[in-house]
User: What shape does this take?
Amino acid sequence: MAETVISCNKKSINELLKKHTVINNIRKYPALYIMVLPGLVFFILFKYVPILGSVIAFEDYNIFKGIFESELVGLKHFIRFFNYQDFWRVVKNTVIIGSYKLLFGFPAPIILAVLINEVKNKYFKKTVQTIFYVPHFFSWVIIAGLTFTFLSLDGMVNQIIEYFGAEPVLFMQQKEMFRPLVVLTHLWRNTGWGTIVLMAALSSIDPQVYESAKIDGASRIRTIFSVTIPLLMPTVTVLFLLNLGRFLDLGFEHVYNLLTPMTYSVGDIIDTYVYRIGIIDGQYSFSTAIGMFQSIIGFIMVICANKLAKKYTDAGGLW
Amino acid sequence: MSSKTQDRLIDIIIYMFLAILAFIMLVPLLNVVSTSLSHGTAVDRGEIYIFPIEPTLASWSYIFKENRMWRSLFITISTTFIGVVNSLFLTSLTAYPLAKKEFKIGKVMMVTIVFTMIFRAPMIPYFLTLRSLGLYDSIFVLILPHAISAYNLIIMRTFFKQLPDELEEAAKIEGCGYFQMLFRIVIPNSKAVLATLGLFYAVAQWNQFLHPILFIKSSKMFPLQLLLRQMVDGTEEIDMVDIVMTTMVYNEQTVKAAAVIFAMLPIMMVYPFIQRYFVKGAMLGSVKG
Assistant: This one.
């Protein structure tokens, strides 16, 4: 092979190279391609095959017939869920819970980071940061376990309520309580962790800016609002858009572990619903159609958020 | 009010606020720890705040005597350990070529990898795919699907890219191949990022819940989180005869509390030592890939 290449004239070699850059590249650096192979197989097997497997949303999937033999039914399942009341209920729950999480969960780390930034005492700062970060490492099962105990009938919160002469509340079974609970547990677990990126942005602010603010006679509060927060805005904008893009990702594990049959009507989100009708009831095609709908909407939202992030900030988007 | 006293006042308010907030965040934790250490009757009377009442280790000894607790702990520890080693190996193996300029399909591969971060396969086809791969009710389902996280892969690639070229130059001249360069030069110089990503993988493995609940059916393979879910869920009752015999030293509440704490203890114990790595990792993630 090498001899034939050598015997060709220069022009045709160049053409050959252009046509087969990848093949040439493989020949030249085979080791790199061998290295990447297991990773490539991983992404194909665990990420792309399931995406392709979504075609069952257009079939009446039958386990015994498999993907290729099952009958194609077009958009039947999509039309069905669009006319299905349960579907709109879970979409509504997903959107409401997502909005609450964004509304409360987004500003919380910003406020916390600005406050921590004002702390001069190193030890105090370290201690509170350690406490704020730690819940991030607990699984949702653990957090649900804590919540169930903490809010049980003879748990601490009800003791305090009774102390003030009010009736105890069955928090975990009450519809009005479910969404606030999702938000509170979200805040408990993620607020501290969310400050890390913001603290990094704050530490990159030039100390001279603060010096000159001081010389100009700006008060502490004035400095926070006229220096710290404006300089934090680019990071905040990017984070906001990324959060917005992930709006539908409420987290199956979070909601599933807090959910009880009594709170389905307000707490059932797309993920938990798909799990129940898909995995438990075995309505594979129908639940795949719903899942696909969610994936596509989510995809579009992330792409748009990223575009906006690129357009309106210097920091740019996710990629 | 002079600006100096005003500043001091603001300081006091901020310190107070943060201290109170930190305390409030600790209360649920302290409450559940205390519940696990309290006498069952005291818990029933609702006397537990943040200190144990009539302290007893009865609930803990109940937990410690449960074989399935230890079995699940063993499953979780071993899958976490094997998973982390496997993940770090595969992630660095994949990240290294992607960090090389001469690797022609690098860009295309990055796009395909980033795509998997923003387009998630729906749950059911994912379930069916893994089942057809023979991972249903198999211990490997706790390890293999977590082999590479796209997010961690990007962090590692970025890190490899930032390593100075001179590091590899000398080895290249001596005729080292890419494999030797990766394992003898690049990896030994990447201990910091390996430690950080290893911890990220470890926490994700330790806390994983979706894969166990989707795929693990035999209780002898239950990882800790799934066993805990079963206990907290209340779908099972602890042995009532036992409770009557011990005159309510422990009850459902205290045992559940002990189980919850049992599952979080290992992470709590290592947390102080590894906190700075986590923080470093979270900041690495904010750097674009």
Remarks:
- The radius of gyration of chain A is 27 Å.
- Chain A is about 75% helix and 0% strand.
- Residues 202 and 228 of chain A are 7 Å apart (CA to CA).
